TrEMBL record:
PANTHER family: ATP-BINDING PROTEIN RV3427C IN INSERTION SEQUENCE-RELATED, CHROMOSOMAL REPLICATION INITIATOR PROTEIN DNAA
Domain of life: Bacteria
Domain IstB-like ATP-binding: from-to ranges: 133-249
Alphabetical list of Pfam families matching this protein: IstB_IS21
InterPro entries per UniProt: IstB_ATP-bd, P-loop_NTPase
Species name: Prosthecobacter fusiformis
One example of a Gene Ontology biological process annotation: DNA replication
Gene Ontology molecular functions: ATP binding
Protein name: DNA replication protein DnaC
Length: 279
């Protein structure tokens, strides 16, 4: 008898054992399903009321015992985690309510000079950024037109997708870097703003750049460019003045990664019904 002939009975035996094991697993599964059928299909939730904790069959199988899930509790936990990440990201409290859907485009006093764009163009650019059609978005204009609203809405979307976000004003960024010089902690500070999937740089062009400001911004944006990370920039100057403020090297990095620039002027929404912050 050759080796192949001896192996055939062994193979048949192993297949028979496997078939028996599969049948046993199926029988145990059917028995467990019958046990679940005999359990209450819903139980009260101490927080959300009667019949809110539903028998979760998948969780029950994983736990090997009846397990109940309250969808409202799960949603509460999801919101709580999201709010924690929003706070950790540094999103300003006055725009944490923001979504793309509650950004109002019917604003009074929209200026139509050459190079100025209306609220609808800002919203469309934000939607395209949300869809990943550009890596960088620069929203600029007079105070209160909704730049921060759109940036917060986009930041919240990223957080809900499980991505990291960091929001910082330029003045605060420069101050953190200057403190780090004396403590030899510059590398850690730069890493804090190069690592997040989305960085929101706020209040560009608001004040004159410090002597090392362009170098700091270039170090961060160059690193982000090379690692294909996304950046939202918020400022208050038209394109020509913005380019002069940030410099040619930074402008080149933003363009290389793909950037859309929007500048607009219309009546501020702060303190009006359009604000939506609840203040």
């Amino acid at each position: 008898m050759n080796t192949t002939q001896r192996a055939l009975p062994d193979t048949a035996f192993q297949l028979d054992k496997l078939d028996q094991l599969i049948r046993q697993i199926a029988e145990r599964s059917e028995k467990f399903d019958r046990e679940l059928d005999a359990q209450p299909q819903a139980l009260p939730c101490a927080k959300h009321g009667p019949k809110m904790r539903i028998l979760d069959r998948e969780a029950s199988r994983q736990a090997a015992k009846p397990a109940y899930t309250c969808a409202a509790c799960v949603q509460d936990q999801r919101v709580k985690r999201s709010l924690g990440r929003v706070e950790e990201a540094g999103i300003p409290t006055d725009v944490r309510h923001a979504t793309l859907d509650n950004f109002h485009t019917d604003r009074p006093g929209v200026k139509k000079e050459h190079g100025f764009q209306p609220p609808t163009a800002f919203l469309e650019a934000a939607r395209q950024f949300a869809e990943g059609r550009m890596r960088n978005l620069f929203l600029a204009g007079t105070p209160g037109i909704g730049k921060g609203h759109l940036a917060a809405a986009l930041s919240r979307q990223e957080i809900l997708k499980g991505r990291s976000v960091r929001w910082v004003e330029c003045a605060r960024l420069f101050a953190a870097c200057h403190r780090a010089y004396s403590a030899d902690g510059m590398e850690a500070v730069i890493a804090r703003y190069t690592a997040p999937a989305l960085l929101v740089l706020d209040e560009l062009c608001l004040r004159d750049l410090p002597s090392d400001g362009e170098e700091i911004l270039f170090a961060i944006l160059d690193h982000r460019h090379k690692n294909a990370r996304r950046t939202l920039l918020l400022g208050n100057k038209p394109a020509q003045e913005t380019r002069a403020w940030i410099g040619d090297r930074i402008s080149d990095r933003l363009r290389s990664g793909g950037v859309t620039f929007c500048y607009g002027e219309w009546q501020s929404a702060r303190g009006t019904d359009w604000d939506g912050s609840g203040f």
